[in-house]
Amino acid sequence: MRVGFGYDVHPLILGRKLILGGEVIPYQKGLDGHSDADVLIHSLIDALLGAAGEGDIGQHFPDNDEQYKNISGLKLLENIYKILKRKKLAINNIDVSVVLEEPRIAPFIMKMKKNIAQVLKISSEKINIKATTNEKMGFIGRREGAASYCVVSLNEDSD
Ligand SMILES: [Zn+2]
Prior knowledge:
alpha+beta, binds zinc ion
């Protein structure tokens, strides 16, 4: 059994789409970054890479590389799936906590789980996504950004 942890943060700005777990969520601001800035998926990728002993997201997808400009987090996750498969690692479970002040993302969680389950070829029952606010404190509380934490466990395939 292997365990991995991931953390990511992005600024919230006007003129960008808010994309979390591969879902576009209606809101007046969106997360800014070189890619689609899907903070949830990025924290998941770092957790998976951590558990696999494969470094971090920046090593695999450099943010000064033009081919990753505005790239979907789910697309990056497909590459991580291939690494896991090559190393014969199977996902046991995924637990994510997204921290943002608004909007409420609860109505979108089922769809996010489905998106992730599809890419990683696992049951969505292995995925748990939680959302919390920062109780109006700090940059998240001022709606200047959002963060995401993720823990995963992997099994080394016996076959
Ligand atoms: Zn990121």
